[in-house]
User: Fold this.
Amino acid sequence: MDTETGKVKFTVTRGMTSEQFASNMEKLGIVDDWKQLNNYIVRNGYALRIQIGTFTFEPGMSYSEVTRIVTGR
Assistant:
C-alpha cells in the first residue's frame, strides 16, 4: 500500500479465478466481503473477463468500480 495515497497495487496472474481475485481484494482491504464481490463478478458475467496485469485499487471501492478496473469495462 502506498501510505501517502492509500492506493494498493495488485497483480492478477494467469489462471487466477474470480474467487481468488475477490478473496485477495478482501485481504487487501479493498472490499468488505469477498463472497459478495465474487457473486457480483459471476452474476454479471465478468468472471471470464478478468485481465492479467497489475492494477491499482483504493480501500472502500464499490464492486462495480473494482470490476471495471480489472476487466477494462
The chain has a mean pLDDT of 93. The beta strands are 8-12, 53-57. The longest helix spans residues 18-27.
